Amino acid sequence: MKKILTILGAVSLTTMSVTSTVACQSNGGNWDDIPLNPPLVPFEVKGFEGLDFSSVNAQNDKQTLWNLMFKQIKGIFAGSHWNFDDLHQEVIRNDVDITNTKIDFYRNGTYSVKLFADENNVITIAKQVKTSNHIADKVRTTDLGNIHDTRPKTILIATIFKNTDIIMELDKFGEFFLGEQTPENWNKQIDEEALADKIKINKVNHTITIDTGKLNWNEETNDPAKEYYGTVTLTYNLKPLDGPSKGIVDLETTQDKNLEELPQPTMLQVYMKFITKNLPLINNLEYLSEFLNDVYLTINKTGDKNYEATLTAYDKSKFFEKSVTVTFTSK
To answer: pLDDT tens digits, residue range 256-303?
Structure first.
């Protein structure tokens, strides 16, 4: 429960700086006895006389490994007697040699790359990639555990709870699943199990494949820093609920109707903040997926930064009834 509340509380998307401190204690040993790996040199050139690599900064976090190699470094070779395309290439990612595979330089990992013409002319690059938008790098925990149904918003919230880093791009991930956050897209009727285009469910073997529709990047037409790509397969156990254990929930009994400030006036932000403010209303998250699917939401702007949102229970819901209007502010 504490983990879930932490996730929901992060809906404010406030990034905190965390400092790790390593304490060294004297145990009578010798410093020379402590094994240390040699430092990782971000960029090193041996040979290639006549070429100037002083402009290369392999540690620049905004510089992708692909651009570093195939635009900046390749550009340095242009017009010289060296042919960049003739260089041999060796690539190790996370200590695994991937030279002979189709390499995706945007995937997360620690890379060691060697480009060489011969033993006397060698370029080495060391770079850590942490900005991958491959869906398998976003959804690293693939077992969703027990879920009540296989509706898109149920899968969405279960995936977020199992992969807490996604909370930092909550709206982006939600819209990837279900499209633009409009009532037309998000307020689906409870007895419709219309799946989002990118979610493929196999109910026989209890798997869910998230397919972005983009397997590879075309550098000229796609932006791997902005768009998800690739596929990932999830597993789940289906444990449906027949109805609420304590009777149908009346939304009019909502205690906290002021959601205060939200980062964005979006449907997903309102849902999540409403949940954090009114946990008992959904039986401390027991009816979470039912709430997201059975309760419809509309948002209206009432002032410069002021909004109100109306949450209305679908008339066939077994868990919720009536409606409530809440208020909040947003930029």
So the answer is: 999 999 999 999 999 999 999 999 999 889 999 999 999 999 999 999
**3-state SS class at 108:** coil
The DSSP output letter for 195 is P
Separation of alpha carbons 320 and 17, rounded Å: 40
132 SS3 class? coil
User: How is residue 325 written in tokens?
Assistant: 């209007």
Contact of 319 with 290, CB cutoff 8 Å: yes
Angle between helices 267-277 and 2-9 (to 10 degrees): 140
Neighbouring C-beta atoms of residue 245, cutoff 10 Å: 9
Residue 312 CB partners (closer than 8 Å, separation 6+): 251, 295, 296, 297, 298, 322, 323
pTM above 0.85?
no
Residues 6+ apart with CB under 8 A from 140: 163
Amino acid, single-letter form, for residue 57: N
User: Minimal CA–CA distance to 56: which of 70, 72, 67?
Assistant: 72
The mean predicted confidence, pLDDT, of the chain is: 87
Residue 23 has pLDDT above 80, yes or no: no
Which spans in the chain are helix H? 2-9, 65-67, 74-77, 135-138, 152-162, 170-178, 183-186, 267-277, 288-294
Q: Token digits for 117? A: 């013409």
Please count the residues of the chain: 331
Yes or no: say if 183 and 298 are a contact pair by the CB < 8 Å rule: yes
Is 283 within 8 Å of 244 (Cβ atoms)? yes
